[in-house]
Each structure stands twice: as structure tokens, then as C-alpha cells.
Amino acid sequence: MGSAVIEIRDLSKLYASSRGNVLALSGIDLDIAPGEFVSILGPSGCGKSTLLRCVAGLERGTAGEIRVNGAPLDGPPDGLGVVFQRDILLDWLTIIENVMLTAHFKKLSVADLKPRALELLHLFGLKGYEHRHPWELSGGMRQRAAICRALLDDPKLLLMDEPFGALDAMTRDDLNVELQRIWSLSPKTVMFVTHSIPEAVFLSDRVMVMGRNPGRFLGDYRIDLPRPRTLSVRGLPEFNDYLVRLREVFTSLGMMKKE
To answer: Is domain 1-73+193-259 classified as CATH 3.40.50.300?
Structure first.
């Protein structure tokens, strides 16, 4: 155990069932350094979300250990922001009220954080929508608001569980760029769950590849592409090389068809 923000050692997660136990995770080892953006990449059902919920303190592992900032994990850690695939906005509240829920839940000063909320909404292209309700916004706009809510108190650790998985390709690309820009302005330690290879390569410093049955790491790939990254980076030969390497991992295990 060293100076990493997240330290995971030999983590396993078993779900007991009368129809037979399910081993969701087995032998997970991972260190994530301060300010590092790490994507957990894998097919559906490989345990990516289970791993993220364990790191968030929302579930407990069956065996192994998780430390956050050097302390054994026992519930959600301090300085944590979480974004899920569904935006989980409350339709009877306005957008600004939804963003401010973080202040209410954490018993922080609403007056002090409201300027921060307005600034985030502006940065994410939601200026003028503060007093709209979620049902008046598109799916992409709702997810932007959910990210603003997670960032309200400037968390040092951000966990994101396929936050753009339900969005169309153009909106997803737009939010990938916005997320990277915000992260570059205020670097955070990010654990990002996705099943999209291009998304993982575009966003990450490192990509951890997961296989299933049980969920386990198959490889650790450092992404050496210059930042800041625009969508034009996807046209670089180096970007395509990473895509090919990662696809080959899944193809060799029968998780993807050969092209």
C-alpha cells in the first residue's frame, strides 16, 4: 500500500443465491494515482459497475481490501462524487435545485455553493436552463446537470458508471470533450466505467481491461496521447493503434468477433 488515492488488493465479490452463487469479481488489484484518469473497460456483465459500487462504499467486497487515501474503506469516502448511467434527477425540482441537492445532503452552505452551481451550469452549456425542470431537457442536457451536481463541492475523487451509455453518439462525443475540459481545469482522480473502446482511449491516462465469469483484470494499458484532446485525435494513427490493441484482447477471448 503506497500513496495512491485508490488501492485495491485481491478484491472478490460473491453474490449468494438459492439457485447458485455468482462470483462477480475475483482477485482485483488496482492502484490509481492522484489526478489520474483511469477507465475500466469491459463487456456488459463483467462486474465493472460492481467494482465501482465497491469503491464508492455502496457495496462491500466478500474478500480483499480497498483503501481510499490510505484509509480502509468503510462506507462512502469523504470528497467523493458519483455519476451514474441514469441521471437520477428529481422531476419536481428545477435544474438548479437538483444541482444544489449535494449541498443539502452533505449539510453544506447553500448560499456559499450556489455561485459554484451557476458557474458549473454555465461551463456545461446549461446557462438559461437553471429554472427549467428535468422533463423539459434532452437526455444529454439532463446528464450534464447530473455531472454538475456531482462536481458541486469540488470532489477530489470522481466515480462515473457509464454516464454516457444511454446517449446518442453525437451527444456522447460532445460530453466526452466537456468532461475532459472540466477535468483539465480542476484535475481529479477519476475512475470511469465504460464498454466503449474509443471513449476509454479518448478520455484516459490508463485503461484497465476486464473480462467476465468472473470479473477480473486482463490488462493495464497506458494511453500516451497529448492533452488536451479534441475529437480530431481520433484520426491519429496512434489512436487507432490503441483501438486495435484493445480489440485484439477481447477478440482473443471470444468477446468480440474478428473483423
So the answer is: yes
